[in-house]
Design goal:
The complex is a heterodimer of chains A (375) and B (285).
Chain A: H1 3-40, H2 57-65, H3 77-105, H4 124-130, H5 133-164, H6 171-179, H7 186-200, H8 216-244, H9 248-256, H10 261-289, H11 293-299, E1 304-306, H12 309-314, E2 322-324, H13 329-338, H14 343-367
Chain B: H1 2-33, H2 37-42, H3 52-63, H4 69-100, H5 104-115, H6 121-139, H7 147-171, H8 176-183, H9 188-199, H10 201-217, H11 220-225, H12 235-245, H13 250-270, H14 272-280
Classes of the chains: A mainly alpha (375), B mainly alpha (285).
Keywords (chain B): Cell membrane, Membrane, Transmembrane, Transmembrane helix, Transport
Main location (chain B): membrane
Transmembrane segments (chain B): 9-31, 77-98, 105-126, 146-170, 191-216, 252-271
């Protein structure tokens, strides 16, 4: 250990220490946002819904209803801190500190190797990204994919839910069977489907002779098939819960009034399941936005294609460059950092990605009409 | 009545067809795992001629250097189990204390946990790698390429959701039991470990399933923290390593995929109810 090394380590320690006040500032800001958003702009209805690892907005919905106004002094502070510390320590160390560092890195010329003499470039990376046609392409591709995903997954999931809630034999087996694909990891599924598209389906010949993964636009549909197969069973469960929540006497009454099955679907099932659709929709949206490992293993972000003309027109580009068909934002961040080694630029993309997801979450909370759903 | 019977029949047929469609990918993997490389390229759709090839392939995978099946499986199991136990107990402890102390500080800490649910992994992944490097320089503990870094990261990422779940559940538990325990002479920590933790069993199972499924199948985090192709590998990393090294060797890839998916499928067959309930519920009472 020479003096220089000690100095470098001290500098780094200092950097980490500097982040702590920012953490302290971060808490009141979140609190303030919540206060303004949920106290002043709150709506009078209540939400109690199921959550999954991908929904953060519920949290916000929860906060809206549980703002602690009064406070007693904490007794037994030692026990309190001792009990909170394990989880909180790991959380701060592994999530919050990297998050703050990430914000800081996105304003510097970080390459992953120059930690000891970082130059501040402030908003240069963000400015670059605003004029970066490929980043806009990634973003728009993600949006298109998410919308298509929402449509397909929810259609399939609702159909499956309707089917499984009928009085048919083996319905529990079906339910479990439809649910099964989402237990297997996205990466593994990607390899399975790569084989199916490139080898198995092609072997049928005729119109199947050309693999879907060869062409950029059909690759998007191939991915949607995969993801629908993967998630439909999971989203189906939400719809099953909603359908089973429909009061039985409504259905009986409609039967006595002589309504057909189709009419019943229109007048009873759809309106009552609309709430579930909202939840399923946001769940699907967030999942699609974070799509990463299936894409990587299915076709390594997809075959190359020409940039769509409408995007080229927006940016005033004559000759459209080649882009990867399935280069969604999450994949783009990874590739920017680990293929192009533009760490700071990748981090700036990540921050933008975070802001988009945050907005989605906030919209979701406001959009959710509150209603209790029991599973 | 006949109408209803006819409808039921139609639904049953549709259900059956859909079921077959859903199982088609698994079926393809199964039949092709029992073929050699040449047969797969010739006709991927035909049924395998002899099942002996399947065991042959499995034997190859088990002995293969690219996947190190048993050690990867064991690593995955170890990482998942240790992460789950630590996430479960530490989050339950934190949530219990946060519910039972009514102070500004406890509320702020809870809010802080919840804010973590909005942060996706992609945002912290690049700084996380550099942070682990820095931590290694400061403490000389190797956080990269070992279990510990990964497990610590999983605790950090699993904590917000788990604290949220436990918090919601603990709020619905009346305090009488705990007060009785204190009167009987329990200390605070004894109250938690002897009284509260057993009560938390149902929500604990939910937490295990939610986090377990995600941790077992996770690829991005271990690929960054452990790295692909090292000594310590989880199953997804091993499959990615194999598929990356032996492109187009479909007999190897499909067999490894089958064996990577098998543990979860077997678990699902045994604990179906718990898994479905755990993954889809978590309603805050």
């Amino acid at each position: 250990m020479d003096d220089n090394k000690v100095r470098i380590i001290l500098i780094r320690l200092w950097r980490i220490l500097v982040t702590i006040p920012i953490v302290v500032i971060y808490i009141p800001i979140v609190g303030l946002i919540n206060l303004v958003w949920y106290r002043l702009l709150r709506r009078p209805n209540k939400v109690v819904w199921t959550i999954s690892p991908d929904t953060s907005s519920l949290t916000l919905a929860y906060l809206r209803d549980h703002w602690v106004g009064d406070s007693n002094t904490a007794q037994n502070n030692k026990v309190f801190l001792g009990f909170v510390f394990p989880a909180l320590g790991a959380f701060i160390l592994m999530v919050i500190i990297p998050f703050i560092m990430g914000i800081y890195y996105s304003f510097t010329d970080w390459t992953g190797l120059n930690n000891d003499n970082l130059q501040m470039v402030w908003f240069d990376h963000y400015r670059t990204l605003l004029t970066d046609v490929k980043f806009f392409y990634s973003f728009s591709r993600t949006v298109i994919y998410s919308i298509l995903n929402i449509v397909f997954i929810n259609l399939v999931a609702f159909g499956l839910a309707l089917l499984v809630t009928q009085k048919i034999k083996l319905r529990n087996l079906y339910r479990a069977g439809f649910f099964m694909p989402n237990l297997i990891g996205g990466l593994v599924l990607g390899y399975i489907w790569q084989f199916i598209f490139n080898r198995a389906i092609v072997a049928f010949g005729g119109i199947f002779a050309k693999s879907l993964l060869v062409d950029g636009n059909s690759a998007l549909f191939a991915l949607i098939i995969v993801v629908t197969w993967q998630y439909a069973g999971y989203i189906m469960m939400i719809y099953i819960a909603a359908i089973q929540n429909i009061p039985q006497d409504l259905i009986e009454a409609s039967k006595i009034d002589g309504a057909s099955a189709m009419q019943r679907l229109q007048t009873i099932t759809f309106p009552l399941v609309a709430q579930a659709f909202t939840v399923a929709m946001f769940l699907t949206l967030v999942t699609s936005f974070k799509q990463f490992d299936t894409v990587v293993s299915l076709s390594d972000a997809g075959p190359a294609m020409l940039l769509p003309q409408w995007i080229a027109d927006i940016y005033g580009i004559r000759i459209a460059p080649a882009v990867d068909s399935l280069n969604f934002i999450a994949v783009d961040i990874y590739k920017e950092a680990f293929s192009n080694y533009n760490m700071a630029l990748g981090q700036a993309k990540a921050i933008i990605f975070f802001i988009i997801l945050l907005v989605i979450s906030l919209v979701q909370v406001n959009y959710n009409k509150k209603r209790e759903v029991e599973l | 009545m006949t109408d209803e019977k006819r409808n039921t029949l139609i639904y049953s047929v549709i259900g059956f067809i859909l079921m077959i469609a859903f199982f088609f990918p698994f079926f393809i993997v199964l039949i092709n795992s029992a073929k050699d490389s040449f047969t797969i390229t010739q006709d991927p759709l035909s049924l395998p001629t002899d099942m002996g090839q399947l065991f042959e392939n499995i034997k190859i995978i088990v002995q293969h250097d690219g996947i190190k099946y048993f050690s990867s499986f064991f690593n995955s199991l170890l990482i998942t189990t240790l992460s789950l136990i630590t996430i479960g107990i530490s989050s339950a402890m934190a949530a219990w204390v946060l519910v039972r102390t009514k102070s500004k500080l406890s509320y702020i800490i809870f809010l802080f946990f919840l804010s973590g649910m909005v942060i996706p992994f992609q945002v912290v992944m690049l700084p996380l790698v550099s942070l682990l490097e820095i931590l290694r320089e400061i403490t000389t503990i190797p956080f990269k390429d070992t279990y510990w870094g990964v497990i610590l990261a999983y605790i950090g990422f699993g904590a917000p959701l788990s604290v949220f779940l436990f918090h919601g559940f603990i709020k619905s538990i009346p305090t009488d039991i705990e007060e009785a325990a204190i009167i009987d002479g329990c200390s605070k920590s004894q109250v938690f470990f002897r009284v509260v933790l057993p009560i938390l069993k149902p929500i604990f199972v939910t937490m295990l399933v939610l986090n377990g499924m995600w941790i077992w199948n996770d690829y991005l985090l271990p690929s960054l923290v452990i790295g692909i192709g090292g000594d310590v590998q989880t199953l997804p990393l091993a499959v990615a390593n194999l598929a990356g090294t032996y492109v187009k060797q479909w007999d190897l890839i499909l067999t490894s995929v089958l064996m990577a998916a098998l543990p979860v499928i077997i678990l699902f067959l045994f604990a179906q109810k718990h898994i479905i309930k755990g993954m889809t519920s978590g309603a805050i009472k």
